[in-house]
Each structure stands twice: as structure tokens, then as C-alpha cells.
Amino acid sequence: MKILNSTIVLLLLFGACSPQKNNEEQxxxxxxxxxxxxxxxxxxxxxxxxxxxxxxxxxxxxxxxNDEKRQLRLKLVRVHTEYLSNLGPDRHFAxxxxxxxxxxxxxxxxxxxxxxxxxxxxETSLHKLNGKxxxxxxxxxxxxxxxxxxxxxxxxxxxVIEGDDKFEFRxxxxxxxxxEQAKVWIPLAKTDNFQTVSIVSMDYPGxxxxxxxxxxxxxxxxxxxxxxxxGEKIEVIYEVSRKEKSPYDSELxxxxxxxxxxLLMPIGGRxxxxxxxxxxxxEKEGKLMQARxxxxxxxxxxxxxxxGEYGTGNSVLACDSKTGNCTEFHSLFISLARSIEIPARFSxxxxxxxxxxxxxxxxxxxxxxxxxxxxxxxxDISEGNKYxxxxxxxxxxxxxNRIELSQGRDLVVEPSPSxxxxxxxxxxxxxxxxxxVYPKTSFSFVRKN
Length: 449
What we know:
This protein is 17% helix and 38% strand. The protein is an alpha+beta fold.
């Protein structure tokens, strides 16, 4: 196994770990390879897992990777199934998350060769540490892909499309095994001042209705399912036109709820103390400068890590661990902001890759807005944390390449889940008589040029 040199040009790379060619480019590159049989995604996943398991067993329970300074002792966290890909006859690409003994998470790119059951890793490359990339990918004139240091990358290579974007967005979930009955709640994207959304098709089993969540105006697809629906697909396909969001005037009076606590986003107490310390010296300045101080505090003090307990948007856990994904970053910001009388609110959806024109999407993404100087200001603190060069951009901007699925926290609908208000809604919430279950959910897109 060898670590890739940063100047190597690699062919046909894929995904957020590495970019995917569009259909036209793929056909140009593979016209002489039409006879080879593509390995399935499941087989590639099995191949990379088997390799990591073998290496882990042979090295005292750890997968070993050498970086420039030391040998890393890692354990598998997850395989990015949305980025597994065939690169040619018996050549494959995989991207995985591995965590070290201190809890840092490394995103590692692997290149494999061989047939199913016989795959060997030929090249390994450390791509990201705690969500922050060491490099990105750029397609060159001969339609191969070259690694580019982040400090030399354009904003488009770092996830930002300015101006406008247009794409098809596919939301898909597979119903798990059901013994008797189940209930499902799924967000439905809506048109607003920044995105125009039309539903191309909806495919779902069972009995359905569209619920209207009144406080934030969300639409929710509600399904009632039986055992016979096990394994069936739920799919919603959208056509989306979206424009970049910058600070904008409020059309309504600021609702008091944007200064009040939520179940997992408390205010006051320790949050007031942290916020007061963060804005020290700016107490007499406006709310805009104070919000920027909170934004900088979170960027400086939190690490983006999908490891351990994360993804619930619990401000207390975020405050204690100083780690998490986008939900922890923005929940902590909202708790701090509201604690010093800055209205703030939460939204969730998906970020559409900017460096390729189709393919899988690495799950949901969330963001926040705060109110100051007569405007709502968009912020994306977890992205600002990943890309230092874009920290200023993400204070006051959301790029065009995203879709919003729902707004708000503690959503109340009727019928409602047995657990009470919905914390936030991106992936399906599914309840059976035995409790909550989790449908396998995936997002994908095709950009409309």
C-alpha cells in the first residue's frame, strides 16, 4: 500500500472525496471498455470493508496509515457508499471515514484493483481531517483529474456556486421490514424567495396525506404502512432552481419564538456566560458585530466530527464536547445568539456538490440565520470551519447549490410521532409498534446546464 504523491494525475475519480465525470465524459473515456462487466456498488463496499478488516486484525485492532509526521492507528467509522465507483475493468474507488484514538476522524480515499472477492488496495490518500480537506480535485484539459491544494482552489472547487443553480434532486428511502403497521413523516421542499421547487414525481406505498405544519409553514408527507410494504421505495423527485442567498429584509415582524429556547437548544445560564465572554469588548456594538463574534468563537473552538454522539442538534452536548456536525455547530450558535437577544433560526436540507454535475450526496446539511440591522443574515458555520478561506463568505451568504427541505425545530403536526414534537426534519421519521426505525435514505442530483 502506498500514499499518493500530490502531483499524480488520476483518471475517472468520483464523489465528494473525488469528482465524478458527467455522462458525456464517461462515454468518451469508456467507449473501448464496453465489454467489461461493472462491479456492483455492494461488491466494492464489501471489498474495501474486507481489506480494512484484514489489516485491522493483523495490526492489533487498528488500521494503520502513515501521514507525514506519524503513524495513525485508526478504526473504521463508515464507508461513503454514495461515492463508491468503478474506474475501469477491475479498478475501483472507495472513500471511508476512520477515527484515531483521540477521536479525530480522517476521510481516506482508496483505489482498489481486482474482481469481487479478490480486491487489493493499490493506493491510499488522506483526504480530510475532521471535515477539513487537505486537497480538492480539478479537471484539466485532457479530462483527467488533478489534486489541488485547498489554498489554490477556486470557490467552486470548495463547494460554492454563486449566482444561480438548477438541478434535479432525488429523495429516496427504502421501507425496512415491518411486522404490523408503521407511520412515516417526510419533509416536502417548498418554493420561497430563494428556491423554486416543482415536484416531478412522487412514488410511495400505503395511505398518505399532506400535513401542514403551521408554526414554520412546512409541508410533510405522512404515510401509514403495513407489513406488505416492507422493502418498497419512497421517492420524491424535484426540479429546483435556486439563487444565492445574501442578507435580506424581513417581510414580517420578528417572531418572538426566535428568541426563545427549544427542547435541545436552551438559552441563558452557561450560554449567556459563553456569549458574554465571546462578545467581550463589543457590548456596546451592534448585534451584527456581536453575531460575528459568536460565529468566530464557534469556528475557533469547535471541530467538525461525525463521531460519537452527534447529529441531534443538542446545544448542551455541542458545548461540552466542542465537536459535532452541522446540527451541533448551528444549534450552539442559535443558543448563544438568543441568549444575548439576537433572533436566530434553523433550516435543513442538502448541499449540492459544485465540482460535478451528477451523483450521490453525502446526507443532509443544515444552516442558520440571525437578525441584525434590519435584515436576516445567512450563516453556515460548519462550512466556514472546514474552509478557512471561505469563513468570511459564509457569514452572510448561502451558495446557490443547495435545497431547503424544512425550517425550524420542535415541529408540531397532527398526527404526530409518539415522542412528541419533531426535533428537525430531513430524513424520514418512521415509527412502528416496536418503536422508531430508520429507513435507508439517499439523496442524489443531476445538474441542469
